[in-house]
Amino acid sequence: MRKPIFILLFFLPVYLFAQVKIIGTPSIKNYPKTVYKAGTQNWDIAEDKNGFMYFANNDGILQFDGFRWQLIEVPLSLVRTIYIDSQDRIFVGLLYEFGMLVKDAAGKYVYKSMIDLVPEESRNFNDVWKIHEINGNIIFQSYEKLFVYNGKTIKTYNPVNKYHFSFNVNGRLLIQEPGVGLFEMFNGFIEKVPWADPLKDFQILSILEISENHLLIGTAQNGMYYYDHGKLDVWNTEVNTLVRDSKLFSATTIMGNHLAFGTILDGLLISDENGQVIQKINRSNELQNNTILSVYADNHKNLWLGLDNGIGYVEINSPVSYITAKGGIGTGYCCKIFDEKLYVGTNQGLFVKPFSNFGKSTGDFTLVENSEGQVWSLDEFDGQLICGHNFGTFVIENNTARKISNVAGSWGYIRLRNNPEFLLGGHYDGLILLKKGESGWEFSHRLKGFSESSRFLFQDKLGEVWMSHGGKGIYRMTLDESLESVSRVKLYGKEQGLPSDAQNILFQLADEKYISTISGVYEYDASVDSFKPADELNRRFDLDGRIKKVVSDDDENIWYISDHESGVLRKNEDLTYTKITSPFESLNEHYVSEFEFIYPYNNDHIFLGIDNGFAHYSSKFPKSFTQEFRSFITRVEMSYLDSVIYPYKNEGLSYTFPYRKNSFRFHYTAPFFENLDDLKFSYYLENFTDDWSVWTTNIYKDFTNLPFGKYSFKIKALNYYGIESEVSEFRFTVLPPWYQTSIAYAFYILFLLTATVITIIVVRNRHERAKELEKQKHKKELQAKEEMFQHQAVVAEKEIIKLRNDKLRADMIYRDKELANQTNSIIQKNKFLMKLNQEFQKIQSTTDDGTVKSKMVILKKRVDKELDNEQQNKLFETYFDEVHTDFFERLKEQFPQLSPKDLKLCAYIRMNISTKEIATLLNITDRGVEISRYRLRKKMDLTREINLSTFLAGI
Predict the structure, then answer these.
(1) pLDDT reported for residue 852
(2) I need a labelling partner for 213 at 20 to 30 A (CA). Which of 43, 196, 384, 510 fits?
């Protein structure tokens, strides 16, 4: 939202002309070398059409845009002078060199030498001290040469002896040769000026035209001379005396009819055209250096100073100036013009200075005797100046404070309506009365019945005394007839219509009381004995915040200070009011919080208390607060190193950036140097942000990862007068990434078409394949059914085989049992036969009967034959083969060397028949069986680790 703009009105015709204030000191801003990061000395100053400032510095050319200092490098030589011509070209004079600033591809200024245009024989020169534009030509002047550049070539002029300085006086080029005289270049010829011969032995440092054919010539040795229609005289003026003593070095005209002189010893002197001193600015009033090498008046009619150490800015084009003192007088709480003297009350005491001829007075403020300490108020009653002080109440007489009351903490006094011989005073802890005596005002007594701090007092027409207390509310008091005490007290607060019990301030307008509250101004409604909003006054003020101080002057103008602004409601002839705030914007952060002070002495002298003294405002000062100014985008940085553009030097161009450089930092400024700290900016990125941003003091803005597209970054500024600048614009395009270019899209279309064709083919193939798969599926189903039937047949067959195998297994079990039974029967039989044979043997050996022996032999043979029965053996082998199929064949195949007896032994061992039983079956001894087993292992080549039974079971 744009801030309302209020135009200052001027009443007297004499003030329609430019002027420099006499009262107070202009606002001074110092820029030390630690801020601008370059050399100490600044020899010359220039301003381009955009309002950017340039300084000829020892280390190069300094450019200042209001927020940033940039050093433009030049060849290794001192920069002595800088000049910007009517085409906004920047020319530079150096040691042994001169040239101009040109823009490189990025729009950055770089130095370009012009020495190649100078004839070879004329290149031997030292410092180029001055540059002028005369009749479209650019003239460079050194001590040894004069170079005239016509845009293409350079012509050289040589002095008789040696040039000193040259001067452009209203389009005329004047050049001095010390010891020879003053010369003028005319139509390409250099001719001597005869009237200046008296000055030939002086070093001329400045020539100013103060009116037609009236020149002011400044010399280094003897101050100023005045030339008028052929007559040359010493300029016998106040300022010339100071200039001569302080040693002139530079000078310029300001505001048309004022002069500014830069001196070597004592800073800056400003005078009117008659030589009367208006301002003296030096180290005593905050200028950082007293040697001024160059003076320049900018487009806003303010002064830039090139110092021997630093740069200064003096805001002379302002209706506001500042009253302080060398070393400081303290914080301003009150002031009063009394007896042609200005008294100022501060936290350090009461100070005084003659007010008549205030600006020309060379003296400083002096401390009033006995006034040390906090001063709260100054009021004039019946020709006496009453001072409310932390230590009591004083009468000021002849620069001395005489105490008339010891009651500490005197806030201030009002005269009682019905008892004008009494003054009612508010103190830290109650009320007192002063009485008019033969010698003036004197202490009377303290009032009983009330002990609250009473800073703001008012007595209404009924004699009731009102007082506002910052933390409790509004008191209404009735004094008794004897004025000895407060007979009745009533407290008004939130319950009586006020928005709060606290932060209420009582003030008076047109003999009526009002209350400033946190919700606007309130007035007393006697009909209901409460407070209500003062609608008419609130409409006039139209404030956002609480009013801290309100004072009306003799013309019924209303001066005020609030939380966020200050100004005046100027009463018009039609009884309406015009609100004026612009002149006071620079003061809003400097008032003494909760102790704000305004003293409107008259239209030309309004005093305001600030944190380091007082501000002085003149409503007659011809200042326009609606002057247009511009904002600029000074630099655009991209995320890649060394990717910087200076668009303000190439306005109107449009830029294109690849997608990888889609992050930007925009630097911007507005060369409005008055109160830079309050300059605000708003930005808008077209096609990205929805609207203008809120106002901010930031001087750059980042945008990262911008999508591709066309953009326009716009910036505007708002100064502290509420004026918006013109909009500055930077148009640019971010190209799409490679995968979103036209070629990429053509490829995507081709790819899509190809993919579509492939998809159709694939779908068709899938359809055919699906049909084939359906056929195969049907075939597989039929095959599965067939396989199922086959499987069922196989299962049935397996079941039959299983039953058959079960039957065979049962038969084998049966036969195995039969084999075991048969074997066991043979064993039993053989055991019996062997026992029987033993008995026969025994009978044979014991009988002597030959017949018996013979019979025993026959029986024994029959038994032996029965034991070795071949048929019985074959029967065993048959049964064994049926149970253990092909065992003997496999055994013979593996071990063909085995005998039939060995095979039988293997069969017995496989059947797990014990050694003893095998011996019975074989009709041999147990030992014979062991031997047979041993031989069998040898034939089968078995080691001892192999179990014979286990081995045979595996065959």
Answers:
(1) 74
(2) 43
Q: 108: helix, coil or strand?
A: coil
The pLDDT-based confidence of 837 (bands split at 50, 70, 90) is confident
**Nearest alpha-carbon partner for 645 in 666, 670, 660, 617:** 666
Name which residue leads in pLDDT, 215 or 955.
Answer: 215
Q: What is the spatial order of strands in the sheet that 400-405 belongs to?
A: 375-381, 384-389, 392-397, 400-405
Residue 642 Cα distances to 104, 106, 131, 734, angstroms: 14, 10, 34, 18
Q: Report pTM.
A: 0.75
Residue 55: other Cβ atoms inside 10 A: 28
The model's pLDDT over 299-329, given as tens digits with 9 standing for 90+, comes to: 999 999 999 999 999 999 999 999 987 667 9
| SS3 state at 234 | strand
pLDDT per residue over 403-437, tens digit each? 999 999 999 999 999 999 999 999 999 999 999 99
Non-local (6+) Cβ contacts of 526 within 8 A are: none
Residue recorded with tokens 């350079």: 154
Strands 530-533 and 547-552: unpaired
User: How far is the C-alpha of 715 from the C-alpha of 727, rounded, in Å?
Assistant: 6
The upper half-sphere exposure of residue 877, i.e. CA atoms within 13 Å in the direction of its Cβ, equals: 16
Distance CA(803)–CA(807), nearest Å, equals: 6
Measured CA to CA in angstroms, residue 809 lies from 613, 875, 882 at distances of: 131, 21, 12
Is residue 383 scored above 60 in pLDDT?
yes
Q: In Å, how far are 654, 706, 708, 739 from 711, measured between CA atoms?
A: 10, 10, 9, 21
CA distance linking residue 421 with residue 329, whole number of Å: 34
Please give the pLDDT value at position 10: 35
Give the pLDDT mean for 249-275: 93
pLDDT at site 822: 67
pLDDT tens figures, 487-535: 999 999 999 999 999 999 999 998 999 999 999 999 999 999 999 999 9
Nearest to 721 by CA among 598, 624, 630: 624
The percent of residues above 90 in pLDDT, for the chain, comes to 62
Nearby residues of 476 by Cβ (< 8 Å), 6 or more positions away: 464, 465, 466, 489, 490, 491, 492
CA nearest neighbour of 445 among 427, 466, 462, 458: 427
Q: What is the DSSP letter of 70?
A: E
Dig out the tokens for 697 from the structure. Answer: 């003091």
- Cβ atoms of 623 and 2 within 8 Å: the answer is no
| CA–CA distance, 907 with 913 (Å, rounded to integer) | 9
Alpha helices, DSSP H, located in 210-332: 238-246
**Between the CA of residue 68 and those of 36, 52, 65, 550, 922, what are the distances in Å?**
8, 11, 6, 40, 129
What secondary structure does DSSP assign to 579-599, as a single string? EE-GGGGGGTTTB-TT---EE
Residue 547 DSSP class: E
Q: Is the pLDDT of residue 7 over 50?
A: no
Positive/negative CA dihedral, 188, 190, 196, 201: positive
pLDDT at position 947, please? 82
DSSP, collapsed to helix, strand or coil, labels residue 571 as: strand
Task: Kindly state the tokens that stand for 219.
Answer: 């010399």
Neighbouring CB atoms inside 10 A of 750's CB total 10
In this structure, how many other beta carbons lie within 10 angstroms of the beta carbon of residue 380?
13
Question: 3-state SS of 764-785?
Answer: HHHHHHHHHHHHHHHHHHHHHH
Torsion angle, alpha carbons of 903, 904, 907, 912, to 10: -130
Lowest mean pLDDT among 654-668, 704-718, 842-856: 842-856
